[in-house]
Amino acid sequence: MLRFLLQCQGEDARHYEEWDSLLTWLDMAFPEDGNAEDGTGFIIAKREKEQDEATIREQFLNPPDQDEAYVNQVLYIMQNHPMIDQQILALERAAYIQAPDMDETIKNWLVTQQVHPVVQFKALQCLRKRGATGTITLERLGEATELDLEVIPLSMDEFPNPIIRILERTEQVAEVDDPTLPHFARELWKESLQFLYGTAAYHWMLRDDDDTVDYFAAALHLTLLLTVYGSANDDDIRDTYGITEGLRFRYEQACKALRQVAVLQQSGDEEPES
Fold this sequence. Notes:
This protein is mainly alpha-helical. The chain is built from 13 helices and 2 strands.
């Protein structure tokens, strides 16, 4: 049923993401379901599903008739819709619009208006997809950040190596307790990065040393357990990741940064005071 829904058109973009996440979790939890004896049938079906989904999605986001009324509607929803999902969908459409002043319109909106951090990040990705160049200075979680539009990550694979190392460290440890946790860790990390990208906490993560990887991975693991199970043993987490007393303060600061994201996700609108 989920594979069928993913091939249908007309739903909100977030629905497709949720269905795909659920399908991925089911595939991980029940790998024997839907597989041929050698696994080939499943792999081929998955590839075909991904290709079909990408084609349908592009047709949905890039209609052939893009007159002035269509462009104005996309811009209005992007800038004014009360639902974040609809703003994000409008930004995904805006990436395909061939209008000469679209880049400057998006930049001006980001600079002059208070925009939710996730919508900000999606707008930056939109500008990157459109081939925008140069830098833009935005307020992100109360901090002035200068961002290079040409290197805005479009996927997890495009983030710098230290960011990937933190996730991989958490995935390796979490998988021992529950084979489905790495999937949720990846989703949680991706969501957190959308909030933190460009901030001091983000640049802190970029220190490519084992200690930084350990205490951010531990903070991610703690946040993951609190999110999925509602509870976690902080002492066990610190022991598992080798967080010594010398690293305790930095670990707690990393936890604080991820908690700030959790608070902001729950509030859904205004940023927490810094």
